[in-house]
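Page 42, continued from yesterday. The earlier attempt failed because a stray header line got pasted into the input along with the sequence. Redoing it now with the clean sequence only.
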Amino acid sequence: MIPHHDYLGLPLAPVDRDTLLKWLLEPDPNRVSPRVVGYLNAHTVNMALRRNSQLGPALRQFDLVYPDGISVVWAARARGLKVPERCSAADYFMDFLREAVRLERTIALVGGREGLADSCARELMSEFPGLQIVHTDHGYHPLGSLGFQAMVRELKILRPSIVLLGMGSPMQEIYALGLRHEGIATTWCVGALFEYFTPGVRKRAPRWMVRIGLEWLYRLSQEPTRLWKRYLLGNIEFIVRNFKP
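This time it went through. Structure tokens are written below.
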């Protein structure tokens, strides 16, 4: 079990990428129930701390919550917490897949619009010979619905080592806990990750923008109508939350 900091009342694990990769891919022999893995960035922090939030209570039940956004790293350090680095999944996903091939881990992709997980799986298996993606599903089945039950049955038959859950928050976090309750593997919440690794869907920011913490600005420039509230108003909300006594 990796100890977590208390960051604004939310769990935050002081992990680096190597530690996180090892934790994701190597099962804990002393653990009985499946593990759930999530992340914090400015947007999820804001959502988790709002009144009547479903996200905050869900994240507090997770086994590991890592820093996805550089703003969370900077803010946590400003509060005296030791956080080694930003661990955004897109930055080390290729390393994750290489290790999954080497260790013969099987993967399921759940989330995204209809057909996205399928397209992403084809692309990844083409790029990484030997990669075993055993199941794909858009995943937007209400918990307990017939569609959800059918997906759970399929996952129980296929027994993937890890389920990557690519939905928006708080849906993916609540869904992850639902899968854990059903005894389904390790579940890793990855947000929009499938879109970045499916050709023609979404481009990542240039490396120099990622390095200096401006990936949000690139995303805003690509989708201003959809994202202006999240990044412009959301960034102000995040700053206020971190400097509030």
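Notes: DSSP finds twelve helices and eight strands in the chain.
Reminder to self: strip header lines before submitting.
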